[in-house]
Amino acid sequence: MGDTRMRTAEHTAKRARESTVAAERRTRVQSLERALDLLEALAGVQELGVSELAARTGLVPSTAHRLLATLTDRRYVVADRGRYRFGPRLGELTEGRTDPIYRLRQAARPHLQAIQRATGETANLIVLEGVNAVYVDQVEGSRMTRMFTEVGSGVLAHTTGAGKAILAALPAEHVSALYGERTLERMTSRTLTTLAALEEDIARIRRRGFAIDDEEHEEGVSCVAAAVLAADGEPVAALSVSGPSPRIINATTDDLGELLREHAAQISAVVKDNR
Q1: Of these four, 51, 74, 90, 256, which has the most CB atoms within 10 Å of its CB?
Q2: Alpha-carbon gap, residue 88 to 84, rounded angstroms
Q3: Distance of alpha carbon 241 from alpha carbon 245, whole angstroms
Q4: Are the C-beta atoms of 25 and 63 separated by less than 8 Å?
């Protein structure tokens, strides 16, 4: 009888320990997920406050503040007068690695900031993945009405200035292989929907040196873009400026195109040296 009671007590204690360990594991995983949510919310923005981060991640402000304190202590996040941004630790973890997107972002970031300061508009860094233009970095505009797309998101390349700038830097046969003779998806009444129309625009882009999206992806929104080239002349990315059409498509569009060409050429020189 005594042995039975002892075994029962031991079994109960074991179950209790297992339950405690499982609960601790769930807590640790949840905390990690919440911390990662906060880091992802900071991606693509210059800085955010606790309330903004809490709203974006669905956390209560006190929980967000506690997690941000830990991230700040570990230098993954920098706190400045109640605002938070990425810290140096994230770059240190990948510095010197072979990730081409990381190197590209490092080379392009100062230029994105300079373009944003010069224009007041949102400046973007985009790469081509199949038939999609994918945003890999961005500096938000400073104007009251500004355009931004979440970093990591993709849009149809033939509907965007950046996508068309990259396509124009590719060999003609590459573009034909990507699209064939099928009808291209329409986003607005101005979207190019045939390969022939796209190729005609590509010819214009090659002549002028930069691409224009005149409300082809979204009504009321336009952009200008220029390609970044590798040492072999292949495009690796594009810079673009996007905003409300009246601020982009006007008498200064050519000046904006030249600004982007200059910065794209400077990034191209750095990319070539690093390959």
Answers
A1: 256
A2: 12
A3: 11
A4: no
The full DSSP string for 89-150 is HHHHHHTT---HHHHHHHHHHHHHHHHHHHHSSEEEEEEEETTEEEEEEEE---SSS-----
Query: Contact at 8 Å (CB) between 226 and 261?
Result: yes
Residue pointed to by tokens 């929980």? 63
Amino acid at 116: Q
Residue 176's identity, in one-letter code, is S
The CA distance from 187 to 193, in Å, is 9
CB 167 within 8 A of CB 156: no
Q: Look up the pTM and report it.
A: 0.64
- Across the chain, which has 275 residues, the per-10-residue mean pLDDT values are 55 56 56 90 84 92 92 87 82 62 86 91 90 88 63 85 94 87 86 90 94 91 92 90 87 89 91 64
